[in-house]
Amino acid sequence: MRIETAGIPSSLLVEYATIPIAFEVTSALSTQNSTDRSFVLTERHLDSPYVKDYDAIGDSPLDWAARFDTSQWVLLVARAESRRLGGATVAFGTPGLDMLEGRSDLAVLWDIRVAPASRGQGVGRALFEASEAWALARGCHELKVETQNINVPACRFYAALGCQLRVVRDDAYPQCPGEVQFLWYKALRDSKAAG
Fold first, then answer.
1. What is the Cα–Cα distance from 195 to 189, expressed in whole angstroms?
2. What was the pLDDT predicted at 58?
């Protein structure tokens, strides 16, 4: 697998936007605070599964450059031979972008998507690790990721990669009742310096 890096906007962005981000929602997570300030997650299965597609509700990658200063963002595209396997976008150094909390040592994994036929094959992990390396090379100490309680596979994925759930907001999505915002953080460290 090869991961290409490009700025936004770029010719790769149109290609990137064709990778589906939709997933089937079959369960949701609820949280309880534990005594050590972490969250205990409980999964409940839904009686009526449905498909969630963030691109279809107005968050298309093709709109990012018009909405944000993406001059310091990176676009990562994973390929095997000539097939698109997935992509990730990392936001960094964008004044006024609330997700960055005004910090110069924080990057946000803004978007990650893997083609349906390539899911569960390590593409997401490779993209996440490339995102970590890119952020670390820019002096970041943490990588932040937003997801929702209805994206149970993503929550499991981030937890398995060592991300810590630090923020849970019930009222973050008035347009999507029942969805709860989860903000995950991953401490970044230089493996060369650590070893």
1. 10
2. 77
* Spatial distance between the Cα atoms of 149 and 37, rounded to a whole number of angstroms: 18
Task: Enumerate the β-bridge partners of residue 183.
Answer: 146, 167
- The answer to whether the beta carbons of residues 86 and 78 sit under 8 Å apart is yes
Residue 151 and residue 163: Cα distance in Å, rounded?
15
In the numeric block, which tokens belong to residue 135? 């952020």
SS3 annotation, 138-185: CCCCEEEEEEECCCHHHHHHHHHCCCEEEEEECCCCCCCCCCCEEEEE
Three-point CA angle 129, 134, 9, nearest 5°? 110
Instruction: Give the count of beta carbons closer than 10 Å to the beta carbon of residue 55.
Output: 18
Confidence of residue 38 (pLDDT cuts 50, 70, 90): confident
Instruction: Compute the distance between CA of residue 76 and CA of residue 163 in angstroms, rounded to an integer.
Output: 20
